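Deviation from plan, reported transparently: magnesium ion complex.
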Amino acid sequence: MITLHDKSFVPFISATEIATRVEELAAHFDALVSSNLQERNQPLLVLGILRGAVIFHSDLIRTCTANIEVEYLRTHSYKGLKSTGKVSIDVPPSFDVKDRHVVIVEDIVDSGLTLKTLVDLLLTKGATKVTTIVLLDKKDARTTPFTPTLVGFDIPDLFVVGYGLDYNGLGRNLPSIYQLSEL
Ligand code: XMP
Ligand code: MG
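Because the crystal trials were delayed, the predicted structure below was used instead.
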């Protein structure tokens, strides 16, 4: 059991289980990278969502030695343990996805609002294809219909931290994933 601020968290998904699943996802990721290179003769743009997905994104991209390009965008929606129901996305003026196949790598899909908003934004900006790879999927929490292309783990609708995910700024550095203790 660990304590972050005022809350206790219990072990949920171990670092070994995460590594095994990342290896499995890597096979699919590799297939995406190769088919994109063949079809478009252009590297895939692999977009990490700051800050929660940084560790998953960096583990996933390092499984691949083919040519890819890497970018990051920051989205905000969560405050403490809850989504605010609004998403903001910081897009730098130089951010260009026109005619690209973009793969979004995200830590978790919860209500679905962040990824739905982001995918729509990329398509509006001229991306030809958007694929989404998420480590964790809280299917029961969905309020905006959204189905990720690839999912690491389906999890119940309970707050989680670790492996990039935080509770009010703490917990991102933990190598495994912890779940909010219901005790
Ligand atoms: P939505 O609701 O837009 O949420 O699908 C996606 C974003 O909300 C954050 N989120 C979490 N962060 N533990 C966290 O540390 C959680 O259990 C959790 N659930 C959602 C996360 O930033 C994600 O990008
Ligand atoms: Mg996030």
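The beta strands are 2-4, 7-13, 44-50, 68-79, 82-90, 101-109, 129-137, 150-154, 160-161, 177-180. We consider this an acceptable substitute for the interim report.
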